[in-house]
Design a protein that fits this description.
Helix content is about 10%, strand content about 35%.
């Protein structure tokens, strides 16, 4: 987020910032398809066909430092293929390499033919020019004595159409009506403001200006909203206003741009990250079958003695919901402590493949299983407090997600799951170990995922108070490009990917245990200086419930992100 006074850039000014270098993946991207399907450059959404534009012309921006890295820039997509039209401009922070996209669209060939034949006099083509533009904000209040000032325009669509993005110019004249297209309303879907990019004002008018990225309202497996890559801007600081732009909607029920089974294997083998566990990690992952084979037990409210789970999990109760009647536990005999420590040699990543952003991207969700989650360590400024029980539980499921562009087959970003939340990290901010294979750092004891090593604090990093998530390079690792199993890809059908028995187990993978954790935390609070007690207690109250051991964790299919988007 940027909050700044308006510093302008122009080609005629003495001070010119260097253009940001465009990011490219460290290795060559494989050739996937030619002309259609996954990696085929163009995707049909029904009456529209879209392509992903990643080449831009700089229009205008703010700079806050001599090297130009602190600021924001606005870009016009260029080199559109024949017949394709711009839907809106692109914006990003200067603090990272130029890395983004803006979709361009054209009417599908058969739609063009239908319209030209005039078979239906009431036919409305999928694309139309705006009838006018509204000036949303300008940096210098329209004073033409300042070259290179920024002007932001909202296309005014004709009746029955919607605008999908804004235009930025460095001149006060309205853009040409041919500059951008509006889309017929029934081919669009709702969108929402997402991440704040800039929050500033004009030096002259003092009018506020807010710029945010946008994303579809309806996301996940069944969502059909398609992000066009444009930005949302407003001269009103409140972020709760209804957006006056839309996103596209994929009306192609077949989702023909999604990868087939051969593509999936090729994607995983090309991009599969290496997961590094902390050098002092005690509770390592294992395969599910190793866990079952080494004595995992199924217990229930009507059978306290429990029964051994077979290697495939075929005797687990499947389907229904988590009713609390069944749970899994470690073996009660001498194998218990050994099973807690996992078995790295057997470990693999369990892969769920699903459509994202209306089938224009593919999410490769990689799940890692650990038989046991260790106790947490609390950081209180310069002091570390090892908690004896808080954080412990049987059966830990963690994940990270690769988001792949279906236009190019390129790795776009990775979601790092971190206990009760997580973050999306652009490919330009990832560490790579071999070609295009990223590094995932798994935190000690808790197994949260991070893009970089270090001591990550869950709580208040400003105060230095929270749970420690220590992540580091080590000799403990899993190469997901080699050690993986595809367990679900619903869009391909049951015949192509057979889900394992244990995936249908919707109950808890660990017993419900109520530790007296609150008492332990209260003891810690009482020994703290008075001035930080309230802050620490507030942070404790926000910690995920599983850290208190109040209930066993559920499996992948019970998580919200199984059919929905990631929490971020």
């Amino acid at each position: 987020m940027l909050g700044c006074k308006c510093l302008y850039w122009s080609r005629g000014a003495d001070y010119m910032r260097p253009e940001p270098e465009a990011f490219v993946l460290p290795g060559a991207v494989p050739q996937w398809s030619q002309g259609s399907g996954f990696g085929g450059a163009m995707i049909k959404l029904g009456e529209l066909e879209v392509c992903q534009i990643t080449k831009f012309q700089h229009i205008w921006g703010w700079n806050m430092s001599l090297d130009g890295k602190q600021g924001v820039s606005f870009y016009k997509p260029i080199y559109l293929p024949d017949g394709f039209f711009c839907l809106g401009h692109y914006c990003q922070s200067n603090e990272r390499p130029l890395r983004g996209f803006a979709l361009a669209a054209r009417a599908a060939a058969k739609i063009e033919s239908h319209g030209s034949c005039n078979l239906n006099s009431n036919y409305m083509p999928p694309l139309s020019n705006p009838v006018d533009y509204s000036l949303i904000w300008c940096s210098e209040d329209g004073n033409d004595n300042f070259n290179g000032c920024g002007y932001f325009w909202l296309p005014q669509p004709p009746e029955g159409y919607k605008a999908l993005g804004y235009l930025a110019t460095n001149k006060s004249e309205k853009p040409d009506l041919e500059e951008v297209k509006c889309v017929r309303a029934d081919l669009t879907d709702g969108c929402e403001a997402y991440r704040l990019i800039v929050n500033t004002y004009s030096n002259f008018s003092k009018a506020p200006f807010v710029v945010l990225s946008m994303r579809p309202l309806h996301r996940g497996i069944y969502g059909r909203g398609v992000s066009v890559g444009s930005f949302y801007c407003s001269s009103y600081r409140g972020l709760g206003e209804e957006l006056n732009v839309a996103c596209l909607k994929n009306l192609d029920q077949g989702l023909h741009a999604m990868p087939n089974i051969d593509h999936i294997h090729a994607i995983v083998q090309h991009y599969g990250p290496t997961v590094f566990f902390h050098p002092n990690e005690v509770y390592l992952p294992s395969s599910v079958s190793w866990f079952f084979r080494n004595g995992a037990m199924l217990l229930s409210s009507h059978n306290s003695g429990g029964e051994a789970i077979d290697i495939e999990g075929s005797n687990l109760p499947c389907g229904e919901t988590n009713d609390g009647k069944y749970w899994i536990d470690l073996p009660s005999d001498t194998r218990r402590e050994n099973v807690k420590r996992g078995n790295l040699e057997s470990a693999k990543l369990y892969i769920h493949v699903k459509p994202a952003l209306g089938g224009t991207f593919t999410d490769i969700v990689m799940w890692v299983f650990c038989p046991f989650n260790g106790p947490a360590t609390l950081k209180l400024g310069m002091m570390d407090v090892a908690l004896s029980k808080i954080g412990q539980h049987v059966g830990d499921w963690e994940h990270f997600t690769l988001r792949i562009s279906n236009f190019t087959g390129e790795l776009w970003s990775i979601y790092f799951s971190q206990h009760s939340g997580g973050i999306w990290v652009d490919a330009s901010d990832l560490e790579f170990i071999e070609g295009n294979k990223a590094i995932i750092y798994s935190s000690k004891s808790g197994h949260a995922s991070f893009p970089h090593p270090g001591n990550h604090i869950q709580g208040s990093s400003k105060l230095g108070i929270g749970l420690r998530n220590d992540a580091a390079f080590s000799n403990y690792f899993i190469d997901s490009s080699k050690n993986y199993e595809i367990i679900a890809a619903e869009y391909l059908g049951d015949e192509m990917v057979k889900e394992p028995f244990w995936l249908q187990y919707m109950r808890e993978w660990g017993p419900t245990i109520v530790y007296d954790s609150r008492t332990e935390l209260d003891k810690i609070i009482k020994i703290l200086p008075v001035m930080v007690r309230y802050s620490v207690e507030s942070i404790f109250n926000k910690l995920p419930l599983e850290l208190y051991g109040e209930e066993g964790p559920t499996g992948p299919k019970e998580k919200n992100n199984w059919i929905g988007d990631e929490r971020c």
